[in-house]
Amino acid sequence: MLRVHVGVKQASRVWHAGVRSQPGPAPGTLSLSETPAYPNRHPQMKQHLAVSAIGSDRTGMVHELTRVISESGGNISESRMASLGTEFAMLLLVSGNWHSLAKLETELKRLADTSNLSIHLKRTEPRTARTDMLPYSIDVVCLDQSGIVSGLSGFFATRGIDIAEVSTRSYPAAHTGAPMFAVQMIVNVPSRIHVAHLREEFMEFCDSLNLDAILEPVKS
Question: What is the DSSP letter of 43?
């Protein structure tokens, strides 16, 4: 609910049951994304690998993936996991030295071949702290309708506000059973923006769509 390819020097490729092919990822595949070469290849220097995995929901999926990460010498720095329909999706940021992540890439290929998981990997770097932005949380509740996330994201995009996280869910109202929709967001507001004016504009926007909303600073 869920806001991933391995950076290598070769062209992008997809592995399926150990055979190279050109189509996009399918169940039981490992996708390796083309990324720039990384100059830092010192064996002991910490590296980072973004991992996404999705497959038919079943007991033990989280253990299978995290066991491979642990046994390869990787460390999970961040993760998001959720059921999506009958699928289960996992997003993880894994850190480790060059050797442990190289081993992990190999072991995840094997896992994709044997567990009917679609796994996508990409070498990445940790996000640097932004001192010119302030994090704010957004909570929105409304009757379920199409276009809510599109409208909210458009409101922030047109103002140059970065969306860091989004989580949504549908549920029936407690007493009436009416279909409801809830959105939680974390947005990074540039310090140049006057927050009081932003809040006024945001509330007017939400009122126009019959959305109940709260915008407040993230509590540390």
Answer: T
Strand order in 162-172's β-sheet?
162-172, 179-190, 133-143, 212-217
* Digit-coded pLDDT (tens) for 80-136: 999 999 999 999 999 999 999 999 999 999 999 999 899 999 999 988 888 899 999
Alpha helix segments (H runs only) across the chain: 61-71, 98-115, 148-157, 195-208
List CB contacts of 174: < 8 A, sequence separation 6 or more: none
Q: Which amino acid is at 67?
A: R
Pairing label, strands 212-217, 133-143: antiparallel
Report pLDDT digits (tens) over 34-63.
444 444 555 568 999 999 999 999 999 999
Residues in the chain: 220
Position 194, amino acid: H
Please count the other Cβ atoms lying within 10 Å of the Cβ belonging to residue 18.
Answer: 10
Taking alpha carbons only, the member of 100, 101, 81 closest to residue 92 is 81
